[in-house]
Design goal:
By secondary structure, the chain is α/β, with parallel strands linked by helices. The chain has ten helices and 17 strands. It folds into two domains: 165 residues, Peroxisomal Thiolase, Chain A, domain 1 (3-Layer(aba) Sandwich), CATH 3.40.47; 155 residues, 3-Layer(aba) Sandwich (Peroxisomal Thiolase, Chain A, domain 1). 33% of the residues lie in helices and 22% in strands. The strands form three sheets. Strands 1, 2, 3, 4, 5, 6, 7, 9, 10, 11, 12, 14 and 17 form a 13-stranded mixed β-sheet that branches. A two-stranded parallel sheet has the order 8-13. A two-stranded antiparallel ribbon has the order 15-16. Helix 6 crosses helix 7. The two termini are 20 Å apart.
Length: 342
Amino acid sequence: MIQTKGRASIVYENPPRIIASASIVGTKEGEGPLGHLFDCIEKDPKFGKNTWEEAESELQLRTARKAMEKAGLSEEQVRYLFAGDLLAQGIATSYGIMELQIPLFGLYGACSTCGESLGLASMAVNAGYAECAMALTSSHFASAEKEFRFPLEYAGQRPLSTTWTVTGSGAFVLAAADSAMAKNAHVCITGITTGKIVDYGVKDSMHMGAAMAPAAADTIYQHLTDFGRTVEDYDQIITGDLGSIGQKILKDLMLEKGVDLGNVHDDCGILIFDAETQDTHAGGSGCGCAASTLSAYILPKLQRGEWKRVLLVPTGALLSKVSFNEGQSIPGIAHGVVLEMV
């Protein structure tokens, strides 16, 4: 069977199963609408470490171990690890999971890394290169602010267009459909659509929703075209972290393409925080936003049969300190992952 579809998509003949997942978040996320769904809420923002970067590494390590514990697997049974974070040179990942000694593909897709890691892990499992693989990503509010904006000690004011970087991590253990590991799995990845870089010239690092929304629109439209589907073929189309402003931009861009997302669309950055009671302005963002929401909220709904098919589209803003300080615009990218109930 030919598994490639259209310009940028793959459909799996034997869809890889998600056999376990885990989510660990900080206190602010635990106080939000999904707080009761996460595996663990850590009260110490430094996770017992000395720096924010070390804290994020510890966060990622704990989440990976939690996912393996839930899957009943040891590190030796995981063939490959696909993981990344927001920090320069991926230091939260490299220092965090070093002691696991699992062969690693280090990734950077900004806040789309959850989609990128799931896509690549599912490709490896489907192709027979790994019976079992893990997709993992994280973000931390304080380490991200220090990396991309201002250290917390600066006490800078945040404009209303800003999203709040989620302190959280999500880990997903994938296994081949015919593996004994997958016999009790209830969710599979039936296809992916890989996004391309889209740049609408946005230069405001405090307005990530505007930078990422065009990439989300491009990937969703490409996915529907490649698969020959409509919005109605999905129970939900959920983006990663556009927030409330980015969601409005996305819907307008899709209408220009002749696609009405209507009430089918939701966004992890909107779901994870309460806009009325939590001071997060436009919503949540960060690699951990889509990852922790997927593990705690989306997968359980598929497992229970409340939803049959979901298109998850984690979104990323591809900026760095260097590009921003040199006056470059902020390109975006988004990756689509089709999740279905087994």
